[in-house]
Structures are given as structure tokens and as C-alpha cells.
Design goal:
Belongs to the GMC oxidoreductase family. This protein has two domains: 237 residues, FAD/NAD(P)-binding domain; 159 residues, no CATH class. It is built from 13 helices and 24 strands. A hairpin with a 5-residue loop joins strand 13 and strand 14. The structure holds flavin-adenine dinucleotide. The site of flavin-adenine dinucleotide (FAD) has 43 residues, from strand 6, strand 12, helix 7 and helix 13.
Amino acid sequence: MRDAVNAPRVSYYDYIVIGGGTAGCPLAATLSERSRVLLLERGGSPYADGRVLDMARFSDVLADTSDSSPSQRFVSEDGVINARPRVLGGGSCINAGFFTRAAPAYVRAVGWDPREVAAAYRWVEDVVAFQPVLGPWQAAVRRGLLEIGVLPDNGFTYDHITGTKVGGSIFDADGRRHTAADLLRYARPEGIDVFLRARVYKILFDFKGDKPVARGVVYRDARGMVHAAYLSPGAANEVILAAGALGSPQQLMLSGVGPADHLRSFQLDVVLDLPGVGQGMSDNPMNAIFVPSPSPVEVSLIQAGQLATVPPRSRRDAPEAIARAVEAMSQVPDAALRGGFILEKVLGPQSTGHLELRNLDPDDNPAVTFNYFSHPDDLRRCVAGITAIERVIRSRAFARFTYPNFAFPAALNVTAEFPVNLLYQRGSDPRAFERFCRDTVTTIWHYHGGCQVGRVVDRDYRVPGVEALRVIDGSTFNASPGTNPQATVMMLGRYMGVKLLRERMLIEGPGRKHP
Ligand SMILES: Cc1cc2nc3c(=O)[nH]c(=O)nc-3n(C[C@H](O)[C@H](O)[C@H](O)COP(=O)(O)OP(=O)(O)OC[C@H]3O[C@@H](n4cnc5c(N)ncnc54)[C@H](O)[C@@H]3O)c2cc1C
């Protein structure tokens, strides 16, 4: 890894990968086995930031809103406070670490080869995945789920299957984080250049007749110096966008690929009118219930301070609203916070939204709307989840973590009344679970879409209508895989890397020497 201030002003590669994130790192590492790869990441190194590597400091990173933070806060138009990564390793450097594969039905629906998928998961898991040690609260939730009939008991597994399970983690037994950046250890060092603090501004195109052909990128280093990287001549050479669910649609639009009217409203030259860019944005809604507890609860990852929504009306005043909420939270007496949270996430989801440019700065957040619970199935699932949580809390297995006079409506009330839930309308009936779902909705950060398969890319992740351009990351998902997406995002980077190398061999023949 080198800082982009040391990068050449002009350079040539077989592959240029934009975004050194969860998909970008395994993809670039794999491609480097047989080609010359440039990996451009706008953030810094995860190894230089102790907070990234330490499980106990998960929330410190999210709370750092400075320009050099590995986490960049954004507030969706729905009013939900959210975060996106800005660091080599991407989301795997700032996330909560849960690691679980996609369900076999998901793999079939997407059309991936199950054997290759299994091999790619193993390649990832050998480096980054671990079996977690459960604390007493977590163990009680697990036993409670079994007691209420969420069966079978699958024990510990990376598989996404019906029943109760303990999933994996990218934190090891010492609480040290292992990230997608660690997968770069698989790279062939002579085959790859990784530049940090390299912000891509534009993908460059030539035209073959009417057809645009990607030919390189322009990026800036931390001093504002402009660099150009071009594809070397070669039929298999490509620019690959892996800038994540916000970054990839944003970068396509900034480069002139997207809905023509929207691009023209920003005086952008239209390279290809592709209305699907920025469509199909989804974020799985998460709701958390606070359970006041007489027994101490171990610290696990997601803490109250991160759970926050601001009313859409005041989203332009979000920083002030957030500051007020944080201040109000600090006034809540410690005794009132003695307890723990149980969370539920809605699968899918079915509700979708869209993403639009706000300005021409690739480092600024685009405007994104998720339309949480606009589809009735999502609301039904949320209510079912809250009902299941109530049954777990009432189970015998969970008894030591509840007060004898525990009343579920009161728990909902307490949760909804936390000052961070600014959407909550006091006086409304908190027993109405649907209302609770809507009023306390927050994110589990599994947002995806914007360059979906079938809308923006084909099943080989190529952008049809453009040559030498693919998108390979979570922006291509039509639904969030498994309970949690990161394992599948990393798997996809490896899976597509292997596929691209195979395509290259067909084009060039096996005899080509390492460049
Ligand atoms: C706080 C949080 C907690 C989460 N918890 C979990 C969890 O416990 N388990 C789980 O499975 N998933 C979790 N997720 C989700 C998961 O981490 C993401 O779905 C996944 O990391 C997305 O990967 P990606 O490759 O699509 O994008 P990213 O990992 O976001 O990678 C995109 C990269 O591109 C870079 N980039 C963007 N624009 C540019 C540009 N113009 N020039 C250069 N570089 C650019 C970014 O800096 C970033 O590093 C969490 C996410 C967050 C934010």
C-alpha cells in the first residue's frame, strides 16, 4: 500500500478497480494472480488505526465524524442516521463483524455456480472468519429462541438456514478484527498497486462507433494532484467499479452513465442513458428493544448511542438534532440504561427507494431514500419479529435477565422514549407494534442496490451498452443475502475474480507470462 501522493501521474494496467472495499480487495487480490491491477481506495489504511482493529472500539469509529474518519456519516432522506466506510477494507473495517453465508436458495436465484461459491467462501473464511464466544446474555437469547420453538438447533455454522444458530464473526477470540484488506495477502505483489487516499473523480470513455468503451480513470490524491490511469491494450482489460452501494451508482452518474435527465440537470455529458442507475436502493430496517435487567449484561457490539432517527422534516438540521439527542442521552441516568438490547432485522426487504446526486463531489454523500416499510410485507415481518422477541424475553431461559414485574408494553415504551428516537410521537400507543416499528426504525447498515443485476449490470456484472466496464459489489444485490451480507460481498469479489481470470485465459491462452 502506498499513499496516492506517490503514485505516477500517468499509469497503465490490465484492471483498474475503483474502491478498495469489501468486494474490491478480494477481487483485486485474485486478479493480480495473472495480470497487472490498480486498486484505488479513497480512505487510509486500517492497520494504521487502532480503533478499527479493536472490537471494543466499534462505536468510537462510528462516532468520529471528522474528514479523516474511516466512517462517513450520512442521513437518508427518510431521516435515519447511517454510516458508510472510507478505508481500505471498506465496510468490513467499521462493521459489527457478523459473518454468515447466503442461503442456497439465494445462490440459485442469482445464478451463481454453487461449487465455485463454496470454494470462494472457504477462501475468504480461511483468513477472516472465526467462531465467537457467546456471553451470558447472548446464550440466554439463544436458549430462549429454542424454547419458543425456533428450531432446529443448528449450533455454530456459517450457513443461513432455518432455525436457531450461532453465526461467525470477523473478530477473533482476542477481539481483534480481520478485514477484507487482510485478503490482499493472497495478492501477487508484482501484480498489484494499491493506492490509498486516491479519490476517483471520473471513469474515462472512448467510443467505438456509438458504443462507449471504458479506457481509464481520473483520481486525485490527498494534495489535490490529478492522476490518470489507463487500461493497457488488451481485449480482456477492464475498469471495475467496487465503490459500494452509495459510491458505485454515484460514480457511474458522475462519469455520465445514468438517467439522462438527471445527469443533464447537473450539466454532465451523457455517455449512456441508463435509467436504472440509483434505482432499487434498499436498507433492511432494524428495530431494537431495550430490556431493563437486574443481571449485568456483557458488552456486545451494537449500542444505544448508534441507534437514531431524525424526523425527515428536520433532516437538514440533522447535525443539530443528533447533537441534541446525544446530549439528551448523556442525561439519562446510568441505572435507567442497565440492561440490554435484542434486535430484529427484516429480510429482503421489499421496500425500495432511489439515489440521486446532490453535487459533483465524489466524496460527498449522494441523496438516498430507502422508503422503510413502504411495502406491507416488511411491516408484517417486523411485527412478527417484535412478537418473537417478546416471547424470548418471557421464556424461562431468559428469566435471570428480566425483573419479576416485567411488562412488555413498558419495555416498548422505554425503548421508544429514548431521546435518540426522534421520530417517536409521544402520546401514541406504543403497544401497537406497527407503530413501534415505524417510530423506532433504524438501520443495521445492510443497504444495497443502485446498480442491480438486471437493471444496471447483467448476470456477468457487465454494464450492457458499455465495453470494458463492470460493477462488482453490494450495489448489485437485489436483496441482502443471509442474515448479514459481508461474507457474500467478499465471496463475490473472489468468485468474480476467478471467473474473470478464466475468461482472460480463454482470450489470451494459458501461455501468457505474468506481466
Ligand atoms: C456500521 C456497519 C455495521 C455493519 N455490520 C455488519 C455485520 O455485522 N455483518 C455484515 O455481514 N455486514 C455488516 N455491515 C454491512 C457490510 O459491511 C457491507 O454490506 C459491505 O461492507 C459492503 O461492501 P461493498 O464492497 O459493497 O462496499 P464497501 O465495503 O463500502 O466498499 C466500497 C469502498 O469504495 C471506496 N470508495 C467509494 N467511492 C470511492 C471513490 N470515488 N474513489 C475511491 N474509492 C471509493 C470506499 O471508501 C469503500 O472503501 C455493516 C456495515 C456498516 C457500515
